[in-house]
Amino acid sequence: MHVDVATINDPEVRELAREAENFLTSHTWCRSVVAGRLAFAIPAVLGVFLFDIVPAQPEIDATLWVVVGDVPPAYLAVDPDASWQSALAGYVDEMRLWIAAVRAGTPTTDLIPVDAEPTLEHADMLASRLDFIEAQLIEVPPASIESAG
User: Fold this and answer.
1) Which parts of 32-119 fold into alpha helices (H)?
2) N or C: which end of the chain has fewer CB within 10 A?
3) Mean per-residue pLDDT for 110-123?
4) For the segment 43-102, what is each residue's pLDDT rounded down to a tens digit?
5) Is there a contact between 147 and 8 (Cβ–Cβ < 8 Å)?
6) Residues 6+ apart with CB under 8 A from 65
7) In the chain, what is the greatest distance between 2 CA atoms, to the nearest angstrom?
């Protein structure tokens, strides 16, 4: 179940929603955000949102998943009917490609943009966060996880 971002009660989750919206509108391909929905959040740690936007370019999807928090922000063109866990799994997969490239010393320019220098230290920090996300949020039954909001 998704919650309209305008109705989020928790101030830390509201801040994650603002961060996600600001992340989207910082891109030239996003004219504006039409609507946002919270899919899952851990206050001040992680937010998974689904946003409807007015794209400035025809190849940009009008509905995007956005992941923000104590991880690099990212948008994903994943099926809007997918679960938040599927969207988060897609995020983890893309970030693991970045980590692998950094560890191999290969370019990251064609991978998901990460707002950190491509260093081994940053790759290791991100990998540990992704390990937590996989073990505690993705590889568990959805009913066993409670979202804040």
Assistant:
1) 84-104
2) N
3) 95
4) 999 999 999 999 999 999 999 999 999 999 999 987 878 899 999 999 999 999 999 999
5) no
6) 39, 48, 49, 50, 51, 75, 76, 77, 78, 80, 82, 84, 87, 90, 91
7) 44
Inform me whether the pLDDT recorded for 1 exceeds 70. Answer: no
Query: How far out from the chain centre does Cα 83 lie?
Result: 13
Which residue blocks in 26-138 are alpha helix, DSSP H?
84-104, 120-133
134: burial class by Cβ within 10 Å (0-12, 13-18, 19+)?
middle
Q: Where do runs of H (alpha helix) occur along 26-149? A: 84-104, 120-133
Which one-letter DSSP state was computed for residue 4? E
What residue type is 148 in one-letter code? A
Tens of pLDDT, residue by residue over 24-46, are: 999 999 999 999 999 999 999 99
Q: Give the SS3 label for residue 14.
A: helix
Q: From residue 108, how far is each of 39, 69, 101 by CA, in Å?
A: 29, 22, 6
Residue 14 contacts residue 8 (beta carbons within 8 Å): yes
Supply the pLDDT for residue 142: 77
